[in-house]
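Example 3.2
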Amino acid sequence: MVRAGLSPERLTLAGAELADEAGFDQVTLSALARRFDVKVASLYSHLKNSQELKTRIALLALEELADQVAHAVAGRAGKDALMAFANAYRDYARAHPGRYEAARFRLDPRTAAASAGVRHAQMTRAILRGYNLTEPDQTHAVRMLGSVFHGYANLEAAGGFSHTDVASQESWVWTLDSLDAALRNRATP
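Structure, written as tokens:
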């Protein structure tokens, strides 16, 4: 049995790996216990319940994704920043589908406020500075970008774009070009 070395951090990472392999909805303490060949009861000294495990995985995913996006957009502005930002999200969703799903797990307000989710919002607003948007257009743009990026990643992961001869990558570039044009069109003179 692999009991030695269990910790909340190790269990969180194993849960994140399980999410990528089987889907975030399949992450439970029972599944995690099977992974370590231990009884579920032995996990309760490290985690309160499946909700805590899922919250910890969500926080890990938000942090990883924020780091990846920050690295991608560093030193970029305007359309270059938008493209790098969007591609970092899509790349993460493709490489870590379960973690990506976890990054959208509903957190309680206090946990969300202390999470890397705040960095995501700040980075989104930072790339929008290159488009000179004022409020409420900036808030609308944040929501539009999130909707497009997450929606595209979800549809692509579900095979929603595999029923046509047009490559998903072509549509992705077209979509980002269209977003850039829409944002430039809304810019405050």
